[in-house]
# Entry
Amino acid sequence: MRKRVDHPIQSLIVIYVTRFLLPFIFAFGIYIQTHSSNSPGGGFQAGVIMASALILHSIVFSATSTLKVIPFNLLLIFACLGMATYLTVGLSGALFGKTFLDYGIFSNKFIEAQELGIFSVELGVGFAVFGTVCIIFYSFVQGELEEENT
Amino acid sequence: MIAAPYLELALLSIILVLGTALIFVVDYMKSIIIIAIISVLAAVTYLVMAAPDVALTEAAVGACASTCVLLVGLRYLEGEKSIPHKWWQLSFCIGLCIALLVALCYYSMEMHQYGDSMAIVKGGASHYYMANIEKDIGIRSLVTAILASYRGMDTFCETLVIFTAGMCVIFVFGCSCLKPNKERGCNEKES
# Structure
């Protein structure tokens, strides 16, 4: 017997406001991620903002519907991918005869290499934080999911 | 920016009042809501104190993510009610709070004034960062430059800490989401 709850929150206002706001929250997260070099914010903030958008979606339209869009395995892959990006950027400096996290391999010009290195590192942090915060939230929701499935 | 000190004073005193209210609240739900409000007010305070990075983090983590995790965790406690405080517990808590407040006020007199350029934290490395950021890194955001380039190793370890925390949560709660066979089994039973 599956107890199907498509909309745990029945209020139309909440559903429509969420539908309106979700793309803007995601866009804000991406903005914070890509403009980290000359405005406040960075990978961590962007990751948490995007994760909070996902959490909002799963609160308003049940966690099962969110996990259909972004499955749990994908979140795990995101977290590992982010961590691997940071580690690869760090180690690639070390492999080519420089120190760990030296961004020299990206470009011959020093400042350009720094900018590219910072951007890729922030991207890694963003992915890792996005994946991890979502994983923590869905691990807590899990018990409820099992109840719905059985 | 003339109103800023009064704004800070108002925000911090509201946080103080809410924090005091947190002692007396027995209901879990109400205390979670109060913690969320404190987080939002703290975020606004950070913004007023010209720290938008910290404000963003506080608003996203403190007010949204951790509140949602606490609320979901509350469902596991359904039916359980916290025991009302006894009078001696309450008086002990209040006494401890007042002692802490007095101690903090006493030691805050020793501290430098907010924004003082002679403060110890502003000496040493921070002068170097501010003077050389354009030459060394070439980006305008000081915080990002310090986090990702000057102190890249620290940020790496911080990210590792968050990642490890996520993995630990998976191991504690078990990962039934990761078992496709079990889910498939459930679906077959239904059909």
Q: What stands out?
A: Chain A has a mean pLDDT of 85. Residues 8 and 59 of chain A are 8 Å apart (CA to CA).
